[in-house]
């Protein structure tokens, strides 16, 4: 039986990068991983500076470079808000320990199973995209240049030493592969974390809606009172507010950064269609483009899903047989309905709500930028 909404794979991954509260040597793991990211970024931006006048080489891996930068900022934001994450986990554990009936336990297990499947699928997709990306890069870049010596790495980096001779070239390529695979997995874990937390809140909302239906029935449980309903509603609001505080700045970074990444990758796909050889375009550009688009969609879908589920509390309270209840209990239900009108949501830096409408705005803006850049190129 499941005892947590967060999947074991996600918990291990968050502990390994130092985000999980109470993980042994968590700070040391986070510092080590952040150091590798910063060193990798230095080599990547050195390459950008060295090839700033070559648009094709500049745009080729710019999406990956920006993803690295976004990951650094996201990890820093989540680390500074680690106390909020600890409070979220404590509230989630309390929800699992306070399951009153088998029905409530089954409802939570359904959400936990869904969260586990989504987390595993997202991590697998990112890992598979990385493997396909490196396979395609290796096939296309294994040829030698005119002097028969120079070869390019699968990830564009400017190293401070000569590394194009065997076996150094092979060792560096293998190291780049594992580092990019690790970073892609971390990106998937951070995206699946917000979806997992939102699914847990939605499970609590479903339980409260079920309790509201049972509240007006003649055979309601003795433990089900107006006080318990209000307390559960307050816990849902508190948990949702903690999730909003934890991911607010991350959502803003995701919203702005993904727009630039989608523009860069989409523009590269557009200009690549004019080339004679198109065999590597699908793996090289289209799959990373879809991965970034899904990343933006996950955040917007999580906010939209939480927004929609919060309205169901007021609907369930109104659909209860409130007219058969005493006056004092009807007043409590009225307050629950009024409070549920203020929808729960996830914002991008307290500026705008992350909804499917926001996702549509990202796609429209990205398409407009791609069109303008393609017309100028």
Please characterize this protein's 3D structure.
The structure is a single chain. With 377 residues, the chain is mostly helical. The protein has one domain. It is 75% helix and 1% strand. The protein is built from eleven helices and two strands. The protein has helices at 8-16, 26-50, 55-60, 62-80, 82-97, 102-141, 168-215, 226-272, 281-319, 327-340, 356-376; strands at residues 347-348, 352-353. It has a two-stranded antiparallel sheet with strand order 1-2. A hairpin with a 3-residue loop joins β1 and β2. The longest helix has 48 residues, at 168-215. Mean pLDDT is 82; it is low at 144-148.
Descriptive tags:
single chain, 377 residues, 2 strands, 75% helix
Q: Summed up, what is this model?
A:
The chain has helices spanning 8-16, 26-50, 55-60, 62-80, 82-97, 102-141, 168-215, 226-272, 281-319, 327-340, 356-376; strands at 347-348, 352-353. With 377 residues, it is mainly α. The protein has a two-stranded antiparallel sheet with strand order 1-2.
């Amino acid at each position: 039986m499941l005892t947590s909404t967060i999947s074991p794979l996600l918990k291990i991954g968050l502990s390994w990068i130092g985000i999980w509260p109470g993980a042994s040597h968590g700070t040391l793991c986070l510092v080590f991983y952040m150091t590798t990211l910063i060193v990798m970024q230095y080599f990547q931006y050195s390459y950008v500076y060295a090839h700033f006048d070559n648009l094709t080489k500049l745009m080729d891996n710019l999406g990956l470079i920006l993803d690295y930068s976004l990951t650094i900022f996201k990890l820093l934001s989540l680390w500074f808000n680690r106390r909020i994450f600890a409070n979220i986990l404590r509230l989630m554990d309390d929800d699992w320990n306070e399951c009153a009936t088998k029905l409530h336990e089954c409802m939570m297990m359904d959400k936990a199973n869904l969260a586990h499947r989504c987390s595993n699928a997202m991590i697998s997709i990112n890992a598979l995209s990385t493997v396909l990306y490196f396979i395609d890069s290796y096939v296309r870049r294994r040829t030698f240049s005119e002097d028969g010596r120079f070869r390019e790495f699968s990830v564009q980096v400017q190293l401070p030493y000569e590394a194009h001779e065997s076996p150094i070239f092979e060792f560096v390529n293998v190291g780049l592969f594992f580092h990019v695979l690790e970073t892609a997995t971390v990106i998937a874990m951070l995206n699946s974390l917000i979806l997992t937390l939102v699914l847990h809140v939605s499970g609590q909302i479903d339980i409260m809606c079920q309790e509201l239906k049972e509240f007006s029935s003649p055979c309601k449980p003795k433990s089900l009172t107006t006080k318990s309903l209000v307390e559960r509603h307050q816990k849902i609001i508190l948990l949702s507010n903690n999730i909003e505080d934890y991911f607010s700045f991350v959502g803003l970074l995701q919203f702005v950064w993904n727009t630039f990444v989608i523009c860069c990758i989409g523009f590269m796909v557009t200009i690549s269609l004019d080339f004679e050889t198109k065999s590597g375009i699908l793996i090289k550009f289209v799959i990373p483009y879809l991965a970034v688009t899904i990343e933006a969609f996950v955040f917007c879908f999580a906010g939209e899903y939480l927004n929609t589920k919060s309205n169901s509390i007021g609907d369930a309270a109104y659909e209860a047989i409130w007219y058969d209840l005493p006056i004092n209990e009807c007043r409590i239900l009225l307050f629950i309905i009024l409070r549920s009108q203020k929808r729960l949501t996830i914002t991008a830096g307290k500026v705008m709500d992350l909804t499917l409408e926001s996702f549509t705005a990202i796609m429209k803006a990205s398409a407009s930028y791609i069109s303008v850049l393609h017309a100028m190129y």
